[in-house]
Design goal:
Strand order of the largest sheet: 2-1-3-4-5
Keywords: Phosphoprotein
Shape: globular
Structural class: alpha/beta
Number of domains: 1
CATH topology: Rossmann fold
Organism: Cystobacter ferrugineus
CATH architecture: 3-Layer(aba) Sandwich
CATH class: Alpha Beta
Order of helices and strands: EHEHEHEEHEE
InterPro entries: Bact_response_regulator, CheY-like_superfamily, Sig_transdc_resp-reg_receiver
Protein name: Two-component system response regulator
């Protein structure tokens, strides 16, 4: 059973998303802020992180940065949900809290399927003396942003 780390400071939303994800046959681990989520992820890396943006102690945007900076965790896919709009977090996909649950379910399935496909595809060998470039696509409400890190 695949594990999803669910992060939100609002217990009602944790309960709602937990119920949806468990009905989809995922194991759910809860955290109430980014700091707690980072600690949990470091102890037991999940297959997906679903996080709120605005939270106390460490927000979802900082959590994304911390996960991407960690060599063991940088490939974990992330979904940010927020009522405040898309924060354009590196490597994260966005879904508004006001979206229908079916949209959230579909995004979870697509993100995990894409993650599976990436793991099954052997990495291309970079030519000698070349700069390794990692490109991250950010998906929001109909717009696409792209950031490149060297």
């Amino acid at each position: 059973m695949r594990t999803i780390l669910l992060v939100d400071d609002e217990q009602d939303l944790l309960d709602l998303f937990r119920e949806v994800l468990e009905q989809m046959d995922y194991r759910v681990i809860e955290a109430h802020d980014g700091r707690e989520a980072l600690s949990i992820a470091r102890q037991n890396p999940p297959e997906l992180v679903v996080t709120d943006w605005m939270m106390p102690r460490m927000d979802g945007l900082e959590l994304c940065h911390q996960l991407h900076a960690d060599e063991r965790l940088h490939e974990i896919p992330i979904i940010i949900h927020s009522s405040s709009g898309d924060p354009h977090a590196p490597g994260a996909r966005f879904v508004p809290k006001s979206s229908p649950l079916e949209e959230f379910e579909g995004l979870v399935r697509r993100v995990l399927a894409h993650s599976d496909a990436r793991r099954q595809t052997p990495p291309a060998k970079a030519p000698r003396n070349s700069c390794s470039t990692r490109t991250t696509l950010l998906f929001g409400l109909g717009d696409t942003a792209c950031s490149t890190a060297h």
